[in-house]
From TrEMBL, chain A:
Catalytic activity, as annotated: 2 a quinol + O2 = 2 a quinone + 2 H2O
Keyword Lyase appears in the UniProt entry: no
GO process terms (BP): aerobic electron transport chain; ATP synthesis coupled electron transport; electron transport coupled proton transport
Keywords, comma-separated and alphabetical: Cell membrane, Membrane, Oxidoreductase, Transmembrane, Transmembrane helix
Localization of this protein: Cell membrane
Enzyme Commission number(s): 1.10.3.-
GO molecular function, one term: cytochrome bo3 ubiquinol oxidase activity
Name this protein carries in UniProt: Quinol oxidase subunit 4
One GO cellular component, as annotated: cytochrome o ubiquinol oxidase complex
Function in brief: Catalyzes quinol oxidation with the concomitant reduction of oxygen to water.
TM region positions: 12-34, 40-61, 73-94
TrEMBL record, chain B:
Reactions listed under catalytic activity: 2 a quinol + O2 = 2 a quinone + 2 H2O
TM region(s), chain numbering: 21-45, 65-84, 91-111, 131-161, 173-196
Domain Heme-copper oxidase subunit III family profile: 23-199
Keyword Membrane (UniProt): yes
Organism encoding this protein: Cytobacillus firmus (Bacillus firmus)
Gene Ontology terms describing biological process: aerobic electron transport chain; ATP synthesis coupled electron transport
Protein name per UniProt: Quinol oxidase subunit 3
Domain of life: Bacteria
NCBIfam families: QoxC
Similarity field: Belongs to the cytochrome c oxidase subunit 3 family.
Task of the protein: Catalyzes quinol oxidation with the concomitant reduction of oxygen to water.
Pfam hit, one: COX3
Amino acid sequence: MEHHQSKSFPISHVIGFVVSLVLTFGAAGIALKTNLSFKVIMWIIGSLAVIQAGMQLFMFMHLREGEDGKTNLVNMIYAVFMVIVIVVGSIWVLTSGHAAH
Amino acid sequence: MSAKVDTSLPLEYQTEQDRMNILGFWVFLGAEIVLFATLFGVYGVLYERYAGGPTHKDIFVIKDVMIQTVLLLTSSFTMGIAIFEMRRHNLKGLITWLVITLALGAGFLFMEINEFIHYAHEGATMQTSAFLSSLFVLLGTHGAHVTLGIGWATMVIIQLLKRGLTPTTARKTFIIGLYWHFLDVVWIFIFTFVYLKGLVA
């Protein structure tokens, strides 16, 4: 466990908040104000979203804290795996092959 | 289920029961992530099936989306500060930041309801097209979670006022905190893969 009681200023929260705002407006700027191709834009803003979500998990939700920290981490990695299977799998199956004809 | 209390830990982790409740809530969040994944999957498949109805660019208002995003992002931050104050055993600070969080959450909800009304006026309803059906189900499920979170957090605040900070009320507060951050995590992906994606294409 970290040294919670002694700190008087929530510095990691403030950093997390500022970085989240930068990532949010950065993604909006890249998506709306640049002339990059759709594919490039989606890869960039998708990556920014994943980084921001990770920051929420580690800096705000204290994912790895406590004696079950490792269990939480494995649980979230599995959840991410399921998201990829469900989202990418659905889109792939339903927009390629026979579905595309 | 022992009553052993480890006072070296933050209040919410002091008993075995409370630690198990927090672990269980993380498992629940894993299931919630899969629930939202199915809705994102449906939307990802259907997002260009306009059926002659309005498209993203016809209905999305980027300024309102940015306001919604900042409201929810800030509320996630203030929830973090609330938990920070809880760990300093500052009950007054905790409740103050919780109330600020809920005010921001209510602001978000107000914006989202107005957004839906605006869409309906544009002729974009759930029945219009597959794009709009999947959009409203995804946004609506998230909005319903925010609504539930506001009611839930209000009840936790009432308990804090009545019982003060105990291992039990601290654990309940920590868990609603996790839930609230999770709602912001889902919103990050809605913002990116629904709104920004729709306005790029």
